Amino acid sequence: SSMRVAPIIQSARRQLDHDEQRLSKLGNELRIANEQIKRIQEGKAELPPAVQAVVNILGDKGLLCTPVCDLVTVTDADWAPVIEGFLGRSRTALVVRSGKFEDALSVFNKIPWDTKPDSVLLVNPVKSKADMGVVPPMGLAHLIAGDNQVAVDYIRLRLGRLERLERVTTDSPEGFTRTGEQAGRADFGRRRPLSATELVLGRQDASHRLAVLRQQRSTLGQNAAECEQEANRSRQLVEALEKFCLLYTSPSPRDVEES
Asked: Could you tell me what percent of the chain has a pLDDT over 90?
């Protein structure tokens, strides 16, 4: 009877929903892998997957944005490792096309948590212009350059009045040495300078990652193809069960005549 078929249909629909969600996830991961390969081939740094995912989501809404790492550079390579170590995720913060920040923020705040939007930053073009006061002659901010003023202002603001130090003493101003010794306002510490393969600001040679990414893309493609076949089988099963249920519950011609 249709009562017996109903639980089977519900189970088949749940499986279909699971297959379609997995296929969508694999499709997004495959898209990110393709875009990462394209970036590296263009001499750009590989982005964290969550950042690339947010770029895609905003782009699909017509909200074009560019990561800061594509827009600024450190003019003194000796200082890049410690500067980037300090900046952290600010290095891949997203600069939205002029006049679209509010729209982008609205979309960004609705992105599901499983995309990990909490690891992504959007640059506020108005607040990035905040007055830092006079940057000391040895200020790290002087080492930031680029053609996009919003991105340059943002990174300089993050660095503030921190200075380049040759060594740290008890009376040092706030700043870092090249090796990561840090003098704070009321404390001292150390910050690990990044390795050459971890740097992302400016043009980067990440060709060593191409083989890994291409293998990942190949595996994702195979998994997506298999998942699509599974989803098609689940879809066909649901359709067949629904047709069976419809035929089983439809009145026969004789029943119609008798009524």
From this structure: 52
For the segment 78-107, the average pLDDT, to the nearest whole number, is 95
233-256 in b/e form (b: 16+ CB < 10 A) is ebbebbeebeeebeeeeeeeeeee
Separation CA 203–CA 40 (nearest Å)? 10
Pairing of strands 188-190, 175-176: unpaired
Beta-sheet pairing, 163-164 with 175-176: parallel
Would you place residue 15 in the very low, low, confident or very high pLDDT band (cuts 50, 70, 90)?
confident
Phi, psi for residue 46 in degrees, rounded to 5: -70, 135
Residues 175/162, Cβ–Cβ less than 8 Å: yes
Top-confidence range, 19-28, 56-65, 227-236? 56-65
Place of tokens 């297959």: 19
Q: Which of 147, 194, 144, 145 is nearest to 164 (CA)?
A: 144
Amino acid symbol at 140: L
Which amino acid is present at 33?
A
Mean predicted lDDT score pLDDT of the chain: 88
